[in-house]
DNA sequence: GGTCAAGATTTGTGATCGCGATATTGCAAA
DNA sequence: TTTGCAATATCGCGATCACAAATCTTGACC
């Protein structure tokens, strides 16, 4: 479905190349298409994308500022290797930010919002039962941000997104630890409890449920993950 | 004190130009040398700095990713114009993040750390009494981060820094509202109370003091600031 | 088989150029 | 003086080139 004006002309695409490259890299990173530690060079990537290396360099700069890519001493970038310590720190920050956002959102959510959240919640449950990891992660993202979006603080949402940019690519590689048993993740998944708390307008309970969801998920990951420098 | 090798040669400076431009822009932004709403163009800035526009473009990309510069529809960037709403949101995020960081830090600070914090605190008091706004803001930054640095969570510090990058340039222009009466800011400055709470190892009290410091400072600013779109 | 140095390749970095779009200026008409 | 518009200057963007440093390859030698 190409964009067409009323005269049948295709709409001029004014989105800069570097922006497209950036979005493409975010997508690739968040869906775990790169291996942690993988080195990315602007020239090679440019060749793969069929552009010059300039737009790629721009995208690298942005991603590196957000810590979604790690700068190497020689100026190259690599997909971040997350250590157990960094993962714990990011989890701690997540509980603080996402807990607060949930608490704020609970007080502002109305019927219409709630209906959308419930839909995301049931889709999330479904995805877990069906065992599709990619779909599960995508639905998990959609569900949580359908709540955070209503916290009334755009700055907070931005910060949460930057944290997810750092954890996201990592989660993908770890969720694979569940293999065919993705449904078992529902045992430590409190998203139904979150919805119930929001319905009851109980902000403190909603915060507690989100925090618990984040923490138990992280603990489960820490249990079965192999982190660099922690033996093999 | 230039870097000299043992042969008296000046050390080759291998810091990339785009990094220097970035640091220079951060410094200029944080010290309020740009007016909110001011448009920055890579070409003009490059000419002023005596470089090509490439390093400037890189620096723009990074600052824009961190929201320290706002992208314009045509791709230019401008120094962010902060609205009353955005300022309130950023303040709310600050209380959450910096409150948590202070609470965590209180539990980890030992005698040596405390001595440095006390020094920063007294320097801050001194700067307020002397009435030098720039010095006050610098000391305020140094004092607060001398605490946050010990929170044991590098990711949290990074997020706090990005928030400061957004509020910093704005604070400068508003602190000028105090004019010759900077010493009066001490009336709503709870940094001595923060130090006392840390000394007493009372994490909850330290958090409350920092939050109060942030909130009352922000309230004072909101009272006398002229925000865009709020009449004149 | 392992080591190391020379050569070849790749890479980051920054300058420059060209294109199309945007913004600014200058001037004439109302 | 204000309005309309064309000439001009400036700008974002992306491609390409040059150069030095880093990295990889290769092959001779111990």
TrEMBL record, chains A, B:
Statement: the UniProt record of this protein carries the keyword Transcription: yes
Keyword DNA-binding in annotation: yes
Domain of life of the source: Bacteria
UniProt GO MF annotations: DNA binding; DNA-binding transcription factor activity
Key words, A-Z: DNA-binding, Transcription, Transcription regulation
One of the Pfam families matching this protein, by short name: GntR
Protein name (record): GntR family transcriptional regulator
Source organism of the structure: Mesorhizobium jarvisii
């Amino acid at each position: 479905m190409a964009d067409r004006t009323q005269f049948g002309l295709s709409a001029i695409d004014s989105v800069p190349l570097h922006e497209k490259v950036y979005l493409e890299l975010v997508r690739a990173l968040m869906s775990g298409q790169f291996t942690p530690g993988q080195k990315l060079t602007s020239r090679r990537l440019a060749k793969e994308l069929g552009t010059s290396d300039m737009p790629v360099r721009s995208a690298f700069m942005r991603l590196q500022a957000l810590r979604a890519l790690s700068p190497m001493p020689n100026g190259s970038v690599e997909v971040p290797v997350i250590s157990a310590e960094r993962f714990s720190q990011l989890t701690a920050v997540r509980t603080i930010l996402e807990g607060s956002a949930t608490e704020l959102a609970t007080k502002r959510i109305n019927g219409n919002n709630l209906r959308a959240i419930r839909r995301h919640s049931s889709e999330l449950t479904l995805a877990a039962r069906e065992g599709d990891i990619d779909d599960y992660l995508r639905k998990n993202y959609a569900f949580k941000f359908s709540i955070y979006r209503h916290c009334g603080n755009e700055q907070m949402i931005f910060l949460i997104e930057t944290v997810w940019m750092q954890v996201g690519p990592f989660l993908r590689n770890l969720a694979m630890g569940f293999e065919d048993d993705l449904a078992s993740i529902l045992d430590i998944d409190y998203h139904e409890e979150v919805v119930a708390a929001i319905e009851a307008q109980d902000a403190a309970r909603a915060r507690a449920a989100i925090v618990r969801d984040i923490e138990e998920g992280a603990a489960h990951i820490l249990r079965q993950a192999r982190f660099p420098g922690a033996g093999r």
